[in-house]
Specification:
The chain is an alpha/beta fold and 432 residues long. Strands 1, 2, 3, 4, 5, 6 and 7 form a 7-stranded parallel beta sheet that branches. Helix 9 crosses helix 12 and helix 13 crosses helix 17. It contains 17 helices and 12 strands. It starts with a strand and ends with a helix. The protein is elongated and about 85 Å long. It has 3 domains: 205 residues, Dihydropteroate synthase-like (TIM Barrel, Alpha-Beta Barrel); 80 residues, Methionine synthase domain (Methyltransferase, Methionine Synthase (B12-binding Domains), Chain A, domain 1), CATH 1.10.1240.10; 118 residues, Rossmann fold (3-Layer(aba) Sandwich), CATH 3.40.50. The longest helix has 25 residues.
Length: 432
Amino acid sequence: MALVTMKELLERAKNNHRGIGAFSVGNMEMVKGAIQAAEELDTPIILQIAEVRLKHSPLALMGPMMIQAAKEAKVDVAVHLDHGLTMEMVEKALELGFTKEDIVVDGLVATVGANKNAALETLETIRYCKEQGLATICGLSNISFGLPERSYINAAFLTMAIANGLTMAIANPNQELLTSCMLASDLLLHKQDADLSYIEVMNERKQRTAKTVEQEAPAAEKSVLQKVYECVLKGNKTKIVDQVHEALKEHEAQQILNEALLPAINEVGDLFDKGIYFLPQLIASAEAMKTAIEDIQPLLLAASNGKPKATIVIATVEGDIHDIGKNLVALMLKNYGFRVIDLGKDVPKEVIIETAKKEHADIIALSALMTTTMQQMKHVIEYAKEQGVTAKVLIGGAVITQEYADEIGADGYSKDAAEAVKVAKQVLGLRD
């Protein structure tokens, strides 16, 4: 094992849904004791020393000792300068071998009840530290001390601090207002998987309030196919390849596709239709399935003599630059074995039809989000007839209806990505 950054340890812990113990040390015995316990339990740890300790345990002595002990440990150890107070001490820590990821600056927020600029001063500190590449922490409830209805002040300050770069907050995780604001802030700031985390937590809360928790019997060991199924259901792109490889030890690629991947994505589509799943979950599940299929595709193609189900040319019509829905449809169609040629957005009818002729397309799939661009679909269908193209035309998009599809002579309409697969199979007469 080795000396690692705290950032690396925390990201690993988050992915594995585990906690990491952090131990404040002030002498050699404490360092040795913490590492020995970690080795006995075979678990990574964080060794930390707070700046307030340095009067009696100088960083010049403790820092090298902590770093060397971490390097020699049999488990991964991060070395952390905790609650840093001055840039001078930060610079000393960096000179001794600490990394910026191992240093946390304490914003030392005071109550706005006594200092009207307390929040602004702390936010400025957080902003500065972010620019310097330093992590930050603050005691969240300090800001509202001595004021009524403190939870609202704390929640507002938390969202402002996160927006300015706050890394960690000392807060009560059982306060739903705080955790909700944190999750929402991460979502709005486009942090990794924040959308999925937000939806997961909110759904859990909804279920908690809707019904009492029932006692469940101990779950039986899941089969390898069930594990693949759950990776798709949960949109777990990081684990699905490993699970597929385990499944390949016992099952053929086609069996994995038919009994795990396709049923899972079908359930995701059903959950989406029922309003239980939301767009980020649908995308994550589709991406997980895509990852799995790309991994086993050579085996699938070998079994089917290398022939895809059909060729589909897909595009957002001319004048329309919205492509999220179109991209999702393309991904889902690929997952189900179709050969998909994605022309992108704002595509003229001439390009669509010429590509369909060149690629011998079985289906032309068109997307539009605006009422001002949906008329282009009619023009594509008319131009296809003029050019003698016999490919089936499927249409969809936020403003599109079955009535409009019938009006312009489209062969099919789908309201979402999951339904697009079903419609494509129907118009081509393909069986599941």
